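Course assignment 3, question 2. Fill in each field.
Student: A.L.
Task: Predict the tertiary structure for the chain below.
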Amino acid sequence: MTEPNAPRRRAPGMSTEQRREMILQTALPLVAEYGSAVTTAQIARAAGIGEATVFRVFTDKDELIQACVARALDPTQLLSHLGTISLEQPLADRLVEAAEAVQGHLGRMGAVLGALAATGRPPQRTPPAAGDARPAGRDESQAATKAAVAELFEPERDRLRIPAPVAADVFLGFMFARGRSTLAPDLTAAELVDLLLHGALR
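Answer field:
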């Protein structure tokens, strides 16, 4: 039992980078829900910190929102997931896992960008900070994603009618087109992959 007058042990302090990451992780779903109407007070409350702590890491709400946009667009999590898909699985299983990862990425991105647009703040792409190793823009992100998906096709290259990078292009074109429209909304990832690999004929 703790003595009444015993000094309270404080949790180890976080570095600036750790605090920034914690605030960003907390802010992302709030920005996806409220768009630019979210307040730093809401974010601080959800993070369990004082509002002043937010401003020790971010200059203002604008900088925080821009960081959320950059994180939503950042393909690092997607690329990491694609890189962990086992090539020992059948091709269809690999592609279903990849499709679900791509759909998750597009969903997170669409939620943040859509909420900001709906609240009157069209997001702008910002260049990466100096020393940031992540892909700098859309072209680089798409190239990295295409290469990761092409790797999933490579074990079957002798059976493919087209080169693996072209197959990856078709796969991603299908996924991104579906993400931007109501293309085949009722089809599961497994059904989409089956359609891609075997066509529409029985």
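Instructor remarks: The longest helix spans residues 91-118. The mean pLDDT is 86.
Grade: pending
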